[in-house]
Amino acid sequence: MERFPFPDDLVRAQREWHDTYRALALPRPRRTTELRRRLLALSVRIHWHPFWSTPPGRTPAARGDLRQLTRGGRRTEGAA
Length: 80
Fold this sequence. Notes:
There is one protein chain. The protein is elongated. It starts with 7 loop residues before the first helix and ends in a 9-residue tail after the last helix. It has helices at 8-25, 32-47, 60-71. By secondary structure, the protein is mainly α. The chain has a domain at 33-70. Residues 57-80 are annotated as: Disordered.
């Protein structure tokens, strides 16, 4: 059950972050530089998202819940 009202764009960015991280963690990944840049850009987008300035976003548990909500066992394009 989701305890926090996460905005769709924040959830999407966190899911993309996990997908990119998994692609980068593969043995001998392709496009390493591109993946690292993507991971950095997504990290910045997630970290500075306006949701974290709202009352529900100020709690430390919100970041953990977002990661847990989006982690999943999704496969990446690079893994297919």
